[in-house]
Amino acid sequence: MISAFFIFNQKGEVLISRLYRTDLKRSIADVFRIQVVSNSDVRSPIVTLGSTSFFHVKINNLYIVAVTKCNANAALVFEYCYRFISIAKSYFGKVDEEAVKNNFVLIYELIDEINDFGYPQNSEIDTLKTYITTESIMSTATAVEESSKITTQATGATSWRRADVKYKKNEAFVDVVETVNLSMSAKGTILRADVDGHILMRAYLSGSPVCKFGLNDKLVIDKSERGMGDAVELDDCRFHQCVRLDEFDSDRTISFIPPDGEFELMKYRSTSNVKLPLRVIPTVNEIGTTQVSYVVTVKTNFSNKLSATNVVLRIPTPLNTTTVDCKVPSGKAKYVPAENVVVWKIPRIQGGSEVTFSGHAQLTSTTTRQVWARPPIDVDFQVLMFTASGLIVRFLKVFEKSGYNSIKWVRYLTKASGSYQIRF
Amino acid sequence: MASQAGQDAKFFQRGKIQEFRAELHAAESKDKKFTKRRMVLKKIVANITMGNDMSPLFSDVVQCLGIPSLEIKKMVYLFLVCYGRSKSDQINMVIPSFLQDCNDRNPLIRALAIRTMSYIPVPAVLEPLTEQLRHCLKDRDPYVRKTAAISVAKLYTADPRKAEKGKFVEMLRDLLLDSNATVVSNAVAALSEIGDRQDGVTFRLNLTVANKLLTALGESSEWGQIYILDSLLRYVPEKHEDAELMAERVVVQLGHANSAVVLTSIKVLLYLMNYMENRKLMDYLCKKMGPPLVTILSSGPEVQYVALRNILLIIQRRPSVLKNDVKVFFCKYNDPIYVKLAKLEIMYRLAREENAREVLAELQEYASEVDVDFVRKSVRAIGRVAIKVEAAADSCIKALLELIETKVTYVVQEAVIVIKDVFRRYPGKYEGIIPTLCENLDALDEPESKAAMVWIIGQFANRIDNADELMDDLTFGFMDEPVEVQFALLTAAVKLFIYKSQSETSKNIVHKVLKWTTEEVDNPDLRDRGFMYWRMLAMNPAIASEVVLAEKPAITNDSDRMDRGALDQLLLHTGTLGSIYHKNPETFIRGAAGRALTDSPALNPLSRQVLVPLARPSLPQAVQVAGPGPVEPVHRADTLIPSGPDKPTPTVPQDLIDDVDAEGEDSGDAGGIGHGYSAGGDEEDEEEHASKPLSSDPYAGLDSAFGGSGASNGGKKGKGGKEEDLLF
To answer: Which helix (H) or strand (E) segment is B249 a member of?
Structure first.
């Protein structure tokens, strides 16, 4: 298992160093600095030297590094690094050099709690926050009872929830967030279109409520109420630790006792009948060797009651571009030489409408004739109250022994960031 | 912790030992709420982090243990974990405080105490620890028990004999039946660690215990689920039904959000399938495994990479898992390079007649990207699709010719290399493009591509009108060429001569080349071949032509598939480093435990036939590498994937690692060798012997013959006369 855990900054300075095992010395950190931090061409997240393997995840200006000396479970090691990051985010708000330095003692305490001898241990944020806190705890007799509660929870079957949660108003918010992945060829055929869905929940519910959650899942609808409107076909569902997997497997019921507060209830994937919210039609011509002309049209493909917001198109230009003159009916378009793209930002496009960018890029003449790789146009956007997969939350039922009423809210959001790509 | 949390960055400053000591002493008076001492301790911890040796402060820091603040206690304990080993003469000072904490009423304190003690592997601590550990393993609080379970693994690592003498392994085994799932999973983790050691007891599961563990699965934390799932590979099904029932219970875990749970579940399922008979269930399981694997591809890039490398193995063994999903492996423009390369390898393997057009279009797209390595491998992949899918060969060749048109040197070179194989796969079909290739002779400056082109010219010298002229040009700098090219030139010259024995030029060329190879070249192999050709030509040109122009075995489309037995073995490591490098871990990690399918009545006959018995640990020999060059550890048959886009390889610059590695060295095996053969022939000794991590042992070869059977038979272990099997 994991022999050591480090956090490095961009310069390769050690911010956190915890050796879980004696098979390594602290100087192993120097090896990582030489091999990865100061290496400009790192081509793998795992570097193995002799029997020692370095697993690293980069976040902001930091390297989160786990070192092993055995045939470690690589998926586990990376999931652990991700988990560390999400715990740190929850504790400090952000994960960067400043946050790590400002909380290093707390981090040491945390990584000793969530990892013992290299084996990840309970890492449920809600539980951790009950005993790894930013307040000084005295080890007095009165704390004993409290501690017993904590230990029972940290090792219990519902380690993610405290038993004594109380709210005046019982509310649950459900956010369905879909990320659309699109890859369209230059001829306009769809090479790949699929949806990564995340259902996030914020549960502010008292006691130990049992929740049942229903979607317009095709496999459920086909079985019970035939012919009931549109059903979606989900290729795969994966759930938070709290969901009873055996029940889902037998009759596709999603039933769970939620953690208190915010968590990701499920992830799903859908590939059939994906409704693409934006259609991008590019016409790009290289005129001789000194000019490229662009006409890029964006059409919205949903009801005019909705609108796409924060739309950002990144339109690539050749490396030897000097200037680009841009004409746009709405938003702002600007040539960014450092990234070789024209960035066109449109704050809002209504459903059922279209906007067109036109422009010319001027090129300097180069001595060596280089073929332009033509990277794809990338589009980022958000559409509220729209799901590209067609998924709808049909119900969320909350059962608690005190029988309180609860209020539920559902929101839908479809977005793309860095994965909606159109070739030209 | 600190009430002023989030303000600690200021402590990240190098400080002097003397100053810290003075500050600690000064803080002893008037230290309200211990804030002053807490500050000093934070400075000390920051300095430890920065790599400054703070050990001279040992006795000063230890003084702070009396302070009734948990935060201070944790910092002092952290200090002890860092320096306890090097200050073993002073560690006695803290034992009373440890013991007091071990008996604290607060379970968190009790757990903290044994966790910390077990991190300090010196006799002065281990001695009192064993006594405390015994109680803690039976503590009424599950949190203490789960911490104690891991502490046993630490104790075993520090002093195996002490742990065995103290019956701790048996106590861990009892914890497998604990009522708390977290305790169970940590006990499993600890036992697995002990069982994987070369000198440890064997850890195997019978059906009852395996089922009991499965029950705990539902209540375990995600990490606990991984430890439990992983341990199921230690259970060997005796009946098909046992394997099938277990798989049905494991399959629900594929819905878990943690990708490590998913991959470990897949590992268990693939393992159990070796022992199944029910085809329908197996098809169902394959169908169930595909979607979760695809979903992992929307996780972070690091996890994607792990999944992709594993998918590459899985689809070779169980092609039905992802056969219709080639599109999900299309690269996104902004994927990290390691994800792109891993996807590329999967793409061409999934290419079939139905999807070849789409795959080819993608590959062509990649061939115009920026990363040289990625472009080269894309070009290569186009060639492989041509070889694999006959119906697509025409369009692949067209694509390759278009790429050659670009005149980008590395693209041209790759194209030439793959076209050589295409010629061999489809004899007599595409030779018409040879003139186009010849036009690009000048672009070839790398040995592999040049050798490929020379091969083409030699092989088809009868169809290339100016073959002799070309060869004359090519042989001009013969002596300066790399050996690879010289070999190709030699053979091509002979072929040319056989085809065109009338031509003066070709006679001159062959004479020239033979003379150089036999008289001036230093490479003995090349010289030998030169002599051989010369004599053949001199004695009987007709037979020479038969030999040199003999029909070549056709290139088949699954030449890049791994051997089934090797695959079966590698898949036992799904999700681990071994599965990423496609190497058995014992071949590149010192002391790593190998795995092999264990024979049982339920094992399917084909798997049994190709079963690869456990190789003996052979690494220490590979460690003798001098210099920092990347060297492949022990080349095994299963790692030979002909040409294809190659895989990431662990490099072994040993001298770099060795000086930071000190503790990794195993010691004291000299005595063991004597024992190994003096008792002679006995099963138990074979096993004992096999566990020696030293392969300079002259009798090493003997054991591999017994490797597989030794592991599957019960018997007594030498040391301590303890039962080798942990569970019955």
So the answer is: helix B240-250
Q: Which residues pair with A46 in a beta bridge?
A: A55
Position B182, amino acid: T
C-alpha–C-alpha distance, residues B20 and B26, integer Å: 10
- Quickly count: other Cβ atoms within 10 Å of residue A180's Cβ: 26
How would DSSP label each residue in A28-72?
A: HHHHHIIIIIT-S----SEEEETTEEEEEEEETTEEEEEEESS--
CB-closest option in A70, A106, A376 to B1:
A106
Q: Which residue of B has its CA nearest to A75?
A: B260
Nearest-Cα distance to chain A for B441, in Å, is: 20
| Chain A residue at shortest CA distance from B303 | A75
pLDDT of residue A143: 66
Locate B25 and state its tokens: 């002493």
- Token pair, residue B11, equals 């402590």
Chain A residues 24-83 within an 8 A CB cutoff of chain B: 24-31, 43-46, 48-53, 55, 57, 68-76, 78-82
Q: How many CB atoms lie within 10 A of CB B251?
A: 21
Nearest to B422 by CA among B451, B386, B368, B447: B386
B118 CB-near residues (< 8 Å, 6+ apart): A117, B129, B133, B150, B151, B154, B155
Question: Longest C-alpha distance within chain A, in Å?
Answer: 84
CB A391 within 8 A of CB A176: yes
Output B69 or A179, whichever has higher pLDDT. A179
pLDDT at B660: 42
Q: What is the DSSP string of B332-369?
A: PTTS-HHHHHHHHHHHHHH--TTTHHHHHHHHHHHTTS
What is the interface size between A and B, counted as CB pairs within 8 Å? 363
- Tally Cβ neighbours within 10 Å of residue A319: 14
Tokens of B19: 């100053």
Q: Which residue on chain B is closest to A146 by alpha carbon?
A: B106
pLDDT tens for each residue of A74-97? 999 999 999 999 999 999 989 999
Task: Taking residues B2-29, report their average pLDDT.
Answer: 79
| Cα angle, residue B234 at apex, residues B148 and B664 outer, rounded to 5° | 60
Chain centre to alpha carbon of residue A46? 21
Pairing assessment for the beta strands A393-399 and A321-327 based on DSSP bridges: unpaired
Tell me what pLDDT residue B630 has. Answer: 37
Residue with tokens 């990690």: B589
Whole-number pLDDT of residue B477: 87
Q: Decide if pLDDT at A245 tops 50.
A: yes
Query: Do B119 and B77 touch, CB atoms closer than 8 A?
Result: no
Q: What is the pLDDT of residues A387-420, one digit of tens each?
A: 999 999 999 999 998 889 999 999 999 999 888 9
Q: Is residue A333 classed as helix, strand or coil in its secondary structure?
A: strand
**CA A50/CA B403 separation, integer angstroms:** 39
CB A162 within 8 A of CB A130: yes
Find the CB nearest A157 among B68, B219, B575: B219
Q: Are strands A420-422 and A171-184 parallel, antiparallel or unpaired?
A: parallel
The yes-or-no verdict on residue B717 having pLDDT over 50 is: no
Which chain B residues are Cβ-neighbours of A29 within 8 angstroms? 51
Chain A residues close to B583, C-beta within 8 Å: none
> What length is written for chain A?
424
Checking if the pLDDT of A281 tops 70, the result is yes
From CA A167, how far away is CA A408, in angstroms rounded? 14
Q: In this structure, are residues A22 and A3 in contact, taking their beta carbons and an 8 Å threshold? A: no
From residue A221, give the alpha-carbon distance in Å to each of A234, B40, B559.
12, 64, 47
Question: What confidence score (pLDDT) does residue A231 get?
Answer: 85
Interface test with A, best of B71, B144, B347 (most A CBs within 10 A): B71
Report the gap between the CA of B717 and the closest CA in chain A (Å).
24
Altogether, the residues listed in chain B come to a count of 728
